[in-house]
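User: As part of a screening pipeline, I want to sanity-check one entry by hand. Below is the sequence and the SMILES for zinc ion. Please return the complex as structure tokens so I can compare it with the automated output.
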Amino acid sequence: MAGHVRDRLMIEIDQRRDTLIETARDLIRIPTINPPGENYREICDHLAARLADAGFSASFVRANGAFGDSDRYPRWNVICRHDGAGSGDCVHFNAHTDVVTVGKGWTRDPFAATVEGDRIYGRGACDMKGGLASAIIAAEAFIATCPDYRGAIEISGTADEETGGFGGVAHLAEQGWFDPSRVQHVIIPEPLNKDRICLGHRGVWWAEIETEGRIAHGSMPFLGDCAVRHMGAVIAEMEASLFPALAVRRTDMPVVPDGARQSTLNVNSIHGGLAEPEDGYTGLPSACVPDRCVITIDRRFLVEEDIDEVKAEIDSLMQRVAATRPGFRYEIRDLFEVQPVMTAETAPVVTTVREAIREVMAVDPEMVLSPGTYDQKHIDRIGRLQNCIAYGPGLLELAHQPDEWIGIGDMMDSARVMAVSLARLLGET
Ligand SMILES: [Zn+2]
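Assistant: Here is the complex for your manual check:
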């Protein structure tokens, strides 16, 4: 791109360093903890007012009736838009506004947004209010540099990413907000590190597996049928045959960290027999053979795998166990599934951000995939827009941790990359 445009952008970003810090701090100070989904309207109002100063108009969308939406905890989203001087593409920055619970182990106030050296501490600093602040500053610097640009810039703050995104991006995609006729490029500033481009994620299948038994007196277990022992046999079979098979099923998808570059399965929970006693109960348990045991599994699969085969693999495992255990009965219930998502490396948003990273940081960015899913799935599947990436500041490993922080220098570098990307997509002939 023209050297004078780039130089002007860098000056505009440098001048906004203090504004960037305050923008991030203001966002962190609004405690948008999800679940249950607090203060969505407050943060949407804040974003709308903050971006009105830069000439953006705001649309508020509540996901009425979506999972989690209620009058007490309404799922509010905001889409802020700035139109250039002529027609052209729309570049959309999408950030989820929700943060996960605080958890234990903090040594700072999680919502004070304390600045220490190059770091701002707080829940959501890294995931992903720092990235949202970078996008805001990038847009403002670009508009100041190229006021006559062609096209449009959108910045959205959306609900519920941490709980599946159904009250956020999924709802907006269903309403047509991510239709390729109105949005052409999407950048999600999730914390994937400032010199990496995230193209997508592995697939997900969550399911419950239940083994059935028959209740009887615990002193005469031979009169009943123990559902927990049946489940023990299921887990033993997983250890013997399934986990080793998944471990060698490597993928060509560049998933990071390396341990996630294969199929994985987690047993999220196990429950069987008597319920846990309530706090304060001082008695003993009763003597019963468990008639029911349930595990929840979280299976992450690869583009090379088919979801029907993923499910069939578990079913055949259950049938192998059944063949060795008389009276073994089981049920598998689907809870949730997401197909793998991977934007092509040749997509315009990928090549543009890659060039911008080279230009700003003089490094060739690594192309990665996320170990877990994020809102790109809804933009891809419901919105049918394949020109979407995650790119933003922050260390992936810090997300959801105590003493989460975002680097100010990293936010500045990402803002530079985003501003150069805007200039490449909207500003040059
Ligand atoms: Zn996130």
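Points to compare against the pipeline: The mean pLDDT is 96. The pocket of zinc ion is lined by residues 96, 127-128, 161, 190, 374 (CB under 6 Å).
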